[in-house]
Amino acid sequence: MFYREAGDFKTTYTEDSQTFPIKFDRYRYYAVLLFAFAVVPFIINDYWVNAVFLPFLIYAIAAIGLNILVGYCGQVSLGTGGFMAVGAYAVYKLMTTFPEVSIFLHVILAGGITAGVGVLFGLPSLRIKGFYLAVATLAAQFFLVWLFNRVPWFYNYSASGQISAPERTVFGVPVTGAETAPWAAYLFCLVFLTASAFIARNLTRGMAGRKWMAIRDMDIAAEIIGVNPLKAKLSAFAVSSFFVGISGALFFAIYLGAVEVGEAFGINKSFLVLFMVIIGGLGSIFGSFAGAAFLVLLPVLLKNTLVGGLGWPTDLAAHLEFIIVGAMIIIFLIAEPHGLAQLWRVAKEKLRLWPFPH
Amino acid sequence: MKDVNTEGYTTEDGRKIGGVVMEMKNITLRFGGVAAITDISFDIREGEIRAIIGPNGAGKSSMLNVISGFYVPQEGEVWYKGSRRPPMKPFEVARQGIARTFQNIALFEGMTVLDNVMTGRIRQMNAGLLSQAIWKGKAEKEETENRAAVERVIDFLEIQHIRKTPVGRLPYGLKKRVELARALAAEPSILLLDEPMAGMNVEEKEDMSRFILDVNDEFGTTIALIEHDMGVVMDLSDRVVVMDYGKKIGDGSPDEVRNNQAVIDAYLGVAHD
Predict the structure, then answer these.
(1) A246-276 burial, b if ≥16 CB within 10 A, otherwise e?
(2) Which Gene Ontology molecular function entries are recorded, alphabetically (chain A) (predicted)?
């Protein structure tokens, strides 16, 4: 009923190509942003931050990154875990080598380094497509984890082989290490997520996004109308890996604090992020948020209902959780193969006419 | 008809045709032992509508693929705007100003009509990734300017109402028109149309013919087209190349071609005695 485009006239092309062309959408977006920045930090506690908000924010960044590669450019990747590890180890090396530089800069640099590595492992995409490319990126996943396990330089020759984040501050407030306040960690990740979503949205609605989608939809036609496939594919790998690297850096430095590479960034992570992208909706920035929220919140919700609400034993609940989440993914994909983003789109179409559908 | 490289000629309906834009010299294209094109030469002049016709398997599409850089001929030279074109990738050819449509529509199905046509402007848009990321400066300016140009094309081809529709949902005839729009948005020096009327009914063919003539008239675009419908070809084109079994068997105005004995034989068959 409130969701109307009628009366909302566009008089310039700039207005027409904005991210939220409908006024109601735009105001809702501002409201969410305001709430996330100005209200949430004051009301959250340690449990909420560690169980819900941090994983959601960080996985959302990773999902945005992977969505650019898989959803927009059509290049399937199973190397997300490996690229997250690159981000984590890059930020660790930067933090320990240049302690005086702001962690903010380190995270961005870690993204940049991951972008470089991503381009390197994206080179096979120029020759191979589809499943075969997925297998090639799987090589990246295993190779990178192996590398970080085997070369002591990456973990500063620590006896345990783990890396752990030293304390770093932003404006005098610690954001990594044991002293971190929940709201500081939350805000730090939120800033990165907001910036990532903003950049990703701008890239995908402009010429870069069109080139990627052209390659995805029909690569031969794209080349014949003037898209350089080499540049388009590698730029998708670079941008995607940049975001994935940032999320890996945050995952290690802010969320976990200490990391053993095989556990934190194994093949499971690659699949988890890929599921987020597929369930959320390929080729949609909103879908990345929705997918991350779905796969982060669902287990928490199930655990709270089964253990907290029904009083079941924890181990039974943990196993049931796997079964239920798995079943829901399957049911969901059968019911709506285009993901949560498509559901959202359909709901909006319906809302436009509601309550007078004729 | 005078054959002067620089002067050009005047068509029956009084349009001035300019000098040679593209010249194919002794093109031979082989796939293994099969010769798809054998020693063909012809030219395309500025502002004209040039048709390539021939029976099935004559090598017409291969010829178009040579022009658009998709195939590299084993022998022969392609001259474009007065200089010999070195072997280059298809996207480089496109950036030189040669746009094309495909026999089996090759649109980007997941994108909207607007995005499809905007992709055609790739030659005119080269803002850096960083500028695009923050949507400021060159990227924003380019986007708005090129959108205006694209809207003119959309307006011209009468597809305003489907601007924001994903291409996958459109019917065949409209898809063909969107593909023409995408090629036209590039403001090409030469527009290649591979069977623009394939699979259309009479009404759609009439529409498409009108659009092709209008494009040529309004923008002065040089057009090279392949078409099977003889009526359409004879009506639209200024000069016609006829191919059969990879060889050129006729070249000239529609009337000359129509009365060419070799052409008649190729199309109707000859009695073997």
Answers:
(1) bbbbbbbbbbbbebbbeebbbbebbebbbbb
(2) branched-chain amino acid transmembrane transporter activity
